[in-house]
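Exercise: predict the structure of this protein bound to nicotinamide-adenine-dinucleotide.
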Amino acid sequence: MPHDLERPDLYIDGAWVAPRKGESFEQHEASTGQRLGSAAMAGTDDVDDAVAAARRALTGEWGRLTAAERSAAILRFADELKKRGRDTSALVSRENGMPIALSGMVNGFGPAVITRYYGELAAGLDAEDIRPSPTGGDTVVLHRPVGVIGAVTPWNYPQPLAIMKIAPALAAGCTVVLKPPPETGLDGYVIADAVHAAGLPAGVVNVLAGGREVGAHLVGHPGVDKVAFTGSTLAGRTIGETAGRLLRPVTLELGGKSVSLVLDDADLGLFASKILEVSLPNNGQTCHAATRILAPRSRYAEVVDLVTDVVGGAVVGDPLDPATQIGPVVTAAQRDRVLSYVELGRQTARLTTGGSAAGEAGWFVEPAVFADVDNSSPIAQEEIFGPVLVVTPYDDVDDAVAIANDSDFGLGGVVWSADAERGFDVAARIETGSVGVNHYELHINAPFGGVKSSGLGRELGPEGVEPYLRTQSIYRR
Ligand code: NAD
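Solution:
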């Protein structure tokens, strides 16, 4: 189902409407810098319209559905996403440079699977919850939808990150105003198209791409009951402040600088085979990418050589080519930001491969590795969000854990060990929301989210629906 790349309208109240100010933006292809298409740019008036529509929908037909009927509607939405999956994965690759092999999984396949998961979960959400009272009688605990959700999402995994908010919100009976970013505004229409085709009642899901001011307007809007945000820690702090002032519930999925901790007994062949997958997924533009590699001094030189060989030998190219392992970064600005970190790194560490702009066109950066990196340096502490890895030596396991935890962030991580139990014990000592032993992979049925500056709250798993529900206890005697 090929997608239309010229989208002059916003999706509000179940209809395609022109933005009130008539603004639009052009989107460019990351691998060529050429124009890809254009989309309507929402303004604050459009957000007002969308929030009003979402409020009406809360108490309209959608609000009157039983959990089973809501489940059926969400499953129809999942089917519509699935039909569009193949083309969606290619569209996102063109937008943000994600290699198609990954995009096929996360943008093509993932959204329908996540939606189906929450659609099935929705069917059981009206189960009776009656608890005996210690003093006689009982309490009926009702689980109600929180209300209108303001969802603000980034460009790096645009489809699954939007769906990780919309699907549990719908399962809970909420309605949603989604604001995708301009960098990947076009694929947001896939969600609107699928909602429309699935026949969800008007106003249940509204989709309006726009810039930061529009996001800020949505986050602070009096008609919004909860905010679900994924993006940078910087923006997350601002949004958290707004939510705090308004006492509005908020979920914040923010940045990361996760470790890939190689223990002295690790199978280095396995480690090497997974470097690109766990440390540079989506060209390093991944919140949970394990971009800090920690190696024992006893095997340090070996690890540096392996990482240098794998990263230096990665296939860099057109994200639509299935053989490509590293594509371009999303924009010229992002490329320049990554290159400025490379310059910073050169001052304090040893560049073993890559680090220059690459390609005749588009926003390519040769994937880079820095060795002998002090964990306190900016390239070890700050999220670069591009193909740059740092390797730091450690003395013993306590030292490795201390270095791993000496970070503002705590989102992902991996521990490599030939002894799974030892790996598990070390993994459990890392201050992070999720961590793998000898691999790293998000699971749909397990909560994902950060600690420290990586965020508040969890998405995925049954836990992912809780933020969209509010309880009401009715005491009976
Ligand atoms: P960003 O924070 O600049 O923008 C994210 C979204 O928020 C965009 O839609 C943007 O328009 C909007 N926005 C920005 N400032 C805002 C504000 N003050 N109020 C309301 N909305 C605002 O982030 P980005 O550059 O698009 O994305 C990359 C960041 O996202 C990285 O830091 C990455 O780690 C993070 N991220 C986190 C997760 C996670 O699950 N923890 C997943 C993916 C990406």
